[in-house]
Amino acid sequence: MKQLDDSLENLIEIRNLKFSRGHRVIFEGLNLDIKRLENLIEIRNLKFSRGHRVIFEGLNLDIKRGEVTAFMGPSGTGKTTLLRLITRQLIPQEGTIRIGGIDIATLNLAELYQLRQRFGMLFQNGALLTDLNVFENVAFPLREHTKLTNRLIRHVVLTKLHAVGLRGAADMIPSELSGGMARRVALARAMVMDPDILIYDEPFVGLDPISMGVIVRLVRRMNDTLGITSIIVSHDVAEVSTVADCSFLISGGKVAASGSPDELRTAKSELVRQFMHGMADGPVAFHYQAPDYEEQLLGRDAE
Amino acid sequence: MTSVFRDVFNTSVEFVRTFGAFQLFSLRVLRYSPGVLLSRFDLVVKQVFNTGALSLVIIMVCGLFVGGVLGLQGYSNLARFNAEDSIGVFAAFGLIKELGPVITALLFAGRAGTALASEIGLMKATDQLSAMEMMAVNPVPRVLVPRFLGGIIAMPLLVAVFSMIGLFGTHLVAVELLSVDVGAFWQQIQITVDMDDIKEGIFKSLVFGVAASMIAVWEGYNAVPTAEGVGRATTRTVVITAIAVLVFDFMITAVML
Q1: What is the pLDDT of residues B212-222, one digit of tens each?
Q2: CB neighbour list of residue B161: distance below 8 Å, 6 or more residues apart
Q3: Residues 113-132 of A with CB under 8 A from B
Q4: Which residues does A9 contact at the CB level (< 8 Å), separation at least 6?
Q5: pLDDT by residue (tens digit) across A78-97?
Q6: Considering the domain A65-84+115-277 in this protein, what is its CATH number?
Q7: Measured between CB atoms, which of B128, B130, B135 is closest to A89?
């Protein structure tokens, strides 16, 4: 029901409302529409540093409701950090992050946890709880936040495990799983509460081509059928292009380019071309800053 | 010279800051403890098993040999005064009031404390604690408090087992090996050791349980999330717990004597 409501254009619609108290008419034929915010997440003027290293400086971006949005960029540009800022695992030094119009920096712990119940997050390494088996890992949010019966929990968990192709691995423990399997279990756990926002941190790493194809289609299908909003961090330009509605290329602490995968692929910016086409030469240096190669190999240091 | 003063000053500031953070952390853990004890007792029972039952072997083996050594040392010294029949009392006082709580706490730090710190540290390093937070589950009451309470409950039970097995070890050496009269051995314990002595042992074991468990969960929770960081947290758990146990033992003994 909640998902159905989310698909409506107006959040609240009031039509021809009449309300009286005794003889006193308070409203007579009131019509009012409160429009749903198009942007689910708005980031404004974000600044975040680690020690002396500035990661984001004046970052602005909007994530539209119901779309698959991808963050791409060279290694070390802070894509995972951005996810952690959006989920308030980290707090920015300056700027605001609004989710559904609410500045998340103003939330207390209870409100933050209430908000996070609307999130599902797939961590880079899966982050499965090592003292629970696969079934209990997926059931964990249900057991913590709902009063569903064991029978219903079993039904929901097996459904989610089936979606990622691991219903048969329900009794295995995390140490028995391969990296790709662990990530698929983590995906089942991320979607078990039917969240409004699903966040994927490098979802395609370590997956074989079959699993990757299934997961890419699953991400797209969940987004379209359930009306959720998905955020993906990935280096995999080819896979992201097949699934994302909008991509942000992050570099130098700011959004270097944004748009649909086709727009990015045909962009004229050298940085975008270098990243999208995987070229070694361009604005982003492949080699980390180092002394002269020849001098280092043949010079005095070599002795 | 200036740099020496600066180092001393910085170290002192860091110590005060860490100690303050530890106190705030302890208050946070204590605040959630009654709720966890009432509503998530199953988690606590699991941790009592992990910290207590799984430490039983090392506690029993060490208790037996400590008791045996007490029997040998006690006999050789008391025999000089023709008081070898008092060896039971000598061992009982030593085990119940001092050696039982202290050695058990040190063994607990080495076996269960390190396991707690490394488990929590690894959970942090592998993003399990972050994943819990993202699932809107507070890791303090879900992960830390059950381990803390499990340690507190397990410690007095382990101390009781240690003291009991220790006395049995003394009995084996003194009565079976050195032919001390069995009647005198047990009767003197029965007459001399009273409830206050046992209460002192229980009190110490509770204090050591709180200290050892709190230090272990603190070190694990604040470990640098790398393999090296978890290793260092584990080492610090043993070192700090050992110092804390001996300091608390001195203070409690001084007050209760």
Answers
A1: 999 999 999 99
A2: B56, B59, B60, B63
A3: 113-114, 116-117, 119, 121, 123-125, 127-130
A4: A35, A36
A5: 888 999 999 998 999 999 99
A6: 3.40.50.300
A7: B130
